[in-house]
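Why this split exists: single-chain examples teach little about how molecules sit against one another. For that reason, every record in the complexes split bundles all components of an assembly together and asks for one structure covering all of them. Below is a record exactly as it appears in the raw files.
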Amino acid sequence: MADNIQMRVTRYTPSPGAVPTVANYDVPLRQDWSILDGLNFVKDHIDGSLSFRWSCRMGICGSCGMNVEGEPMLTCATFLTDYAPGPVRVEPLTNFPVVRDLVVDIDDFMEKLPRIKPWIIRDDEKSVMDGEYLQTPEELEEYKQFSNCINCMLCYAACPIYGLDESFIGPAAIALAERYDLDSRDRGQRERLDILIEKEGVWGCTFVGECTRVCPKHVDPAGAIQRYKLKAATENLKAFLLPRGAR
Amino acid sequence: MSENAAAAHDVLLVGGGAAGLRAAIAIAETNPSLSVAVISKVYPMRSHTVSAEGGAAGAIAEDDTLDEHAYDTVSGSDWLGDQDAIEAFVQEAPRELLQLEHWGCPWSREPNGRIAVRAFGGMKNMRTWFAADKTGFHMLHSLFQTSLKYADIRRYDEWFVTRLLVDDGRVHGVVAIELMTGRVEVIAAKSVVLCNGGSGKVFPFTTNANICTGDGMALAYRAGAPLKDMEFVQYHPTGLPFTGILITEATRAEGGWLLNKDGYRYLQDYDLGKPEPTPVLRSMELGPRDRLSQAFVHEVEKGRTIESPYGPIVHLDLRHLGAKLIDTKLPMVRELCMKYERIDPVKELIPVRPVVHYMMGGVHTDIDGATPIGGLYAAGEAACVTINGANRLGSNSLPECLVFGARAGKAAAEYAISAKQPSPVVMRQADDEVRRIDHMRSADRGTEQIADIREEMQSTMEDSAGIFRSGDSLAKGIDQLAELQQRLERVQLHDQTLAFNTELVAALELANMLDIAETMLHSALQREESRGAHQRTDFTSRDDTRFLNHALAYRDSDGSVRIERLPVTITRWPPGERVYGR
């Protein structure tokens, strides 16, 4: 194995007229090193001004998503050796405004997330003193995969629809809506459908499926979107055929 | 800096992990008219709660009792836990975990739909609730998503708090940097709750995330509040050798074995019981973390560990559990091993070694999270109530965040209702803080590099205050830290820009960690006994006559550490022998 690998990293500092540039850094090519380890080597030993987010380095906090060789990836769970002999290109996630170097602005998602009401909605609230809501392992299995979303934003970076129209509520938000809809404790399906039936909701999606392909946690947002389209279509049909009170 | 604060709130929660979000929801539910804000250097769902794996303890099983949970916790703490706090904790933990269930947490279930519980280290009964092996992740996202229901909870995401504003014995707010713009602002608050986690990053090899830099502890300490029991650092016995990634204790609760280089279950040689084919509670691999990590060091001394590029290791054997159990109950363990070690635990042995995991110590609080500073509270790993004493039991920290997050939140709300408006005199302190930050960012300070000082601090801590310590190692470490404090004054940033200056944050975090590290070494030097996770090679036994008490570390005006002592609260369980496996 070669001793080093070159990382080609996007640099950008906001100022009037500033444009992104690319800086090349040679970092040690080690068997155990993730892309993130390479970036930290740069920050600690070559250029301390390189900015990027990271925290857990074990693929669960969702901070360190970047485009690696054009693909949205968690950089803590992607290894330098997979790109040997290099060079390896590291860019900020696509489809988001860039704040600085590899840091993108995800406030758009943070503003959208509450819209789909990602919490348990009940008609009747049982007191905590009365114990748990029963839920069998099979019922848990129904929504489990959708609950594994870590909000890493890779699906938004991969989504061509979101790239064209940022009003699209997007894959992770829809997957989380489905997570609660499928939860046997929840009664909020109708409220969420009212939101997702709007044009920024599921109809924006043309089913490219990139979201599911890039998800590092094997969540299937594309599947969630398809299920919602079916629900929405059924609902539209009911609206056409039945007076409101009968729906 | 303007004359006025950028914003003012009744209660400000610093940190958006389990404790901070639980506190925020508690206030939003009980005092909806109060202005509540959560400020964190990361988005809430990035908080380190996310990495917790194995579970959360709360006695609900029919054959379990609150008293047994309390006794396990007291004996696990080597009698340094305060028993009034432990009694309140075990009583409120089941209710808090049920509350999380009502908020949608996907707890693993029995076939009949009831909550499932698993065994855990040092626990006499099965009482650990779990969501597969991603318990912290699911708890955090359930709390975060539920918090979104309360639109009035104001959030300051990616704001780094650098100073508490304290005057006349009470808190008036904070100074914080908005990372996106680099702006430094005052956020006034009648009460402040520190919920910003632990400080594993003072050590070189830790399960902790990059963000665990003891910020809350350092903020309180500099503001004059004492830090309690800082000498007690938990080494988790099973971390992956290079990354330090945690392999949960649940692997052993489900039946995993620890093997030395001869394939021998070595824990049987350390008064932890006899090896049985299936797990026995409070025995062998289900002993407490302090004893298991100490046993590892003895195995190294006997030459019975395995050499690896990252030092000596032992093996964790899950092969006899089978793919089905591993995929159902330990899916993340399999995923982590395949990703970071390129091994499959269904067929291969997992290399592990002890790794710094948790700070038993933290900001000194009472049972409601109150510190000695008016209006200042703390909860979660940042705080030291203490239910953990000299050694925390696995799966007690997640419910601790909930129980004491809720308690501190409610107490801070009560304080805010009766408190006067924050005083404007603290704006001068804020100006000082702006100067400190500007100075840190300025050019021409010297030639020292952040990474060099950080690495030297970390190796100093490992050498002087590892699993075993001595008076000599600690004294040497104290001298080295003093030198590093000097060098920090000459640190040179490459980055002078405002927008998302992570190097500035790293420098401020390093300053926090150095202060925390000093309190750890001074507290450890003065505790001339061995208790729980604090093992002195020069004082090898527990000394209840001199040290059945807490260490309170205060910062003197010249920056030096002063230690005072506080008795342990004993209610029903007088100090006794810790017995495991017999």
